[in-house]
Specification:
90 residues; mainly alpha; single chain; extended
Length: 90
């Protein structure tokens, strides 16, 4: 089996003991499963206008998270609307 460059980097890191454990790996796996499930359930399109600066920051964060930036935006919206609302009665 021929190894591609990504496979070689992973194997080299493992063999040289430079690999790092992911803290709370099960939580991370569940999080990415939720991202995948959410991306499969999409059935509406929206268009929004945002600043170039914000889009650039979103795209950078998406790269860090290993996600398409549209999926990251969708996830942020989903998390925002899914969180419990604070009690606003005075």
């Amino acid at each position: 089996m021929k190894k591609n460059n990504k496979d070689k980097k992973i194997l080299d890191a493992y063999e040289s003991s430079n690999s790092k454990s992911i803290p709370n790996v099960n939580k991370k796996i569940a999080q990415y499963k939720e991202y995948a499930n959410s991306s499969l359930k999409k059935n509406k399109r929206i268009n929004i206008r945002i600043s170039q600066r914000d889009l650039t920051h979103i795209q950078r964060r998406a790269i860090e998270e290993g996600l398409p930036y549209q999926t990251l935006i969708s996830s942020v919206i989903h998390k925002y609307i899914s969180r419990p609302q604070p009690n606003t009665t005075k």
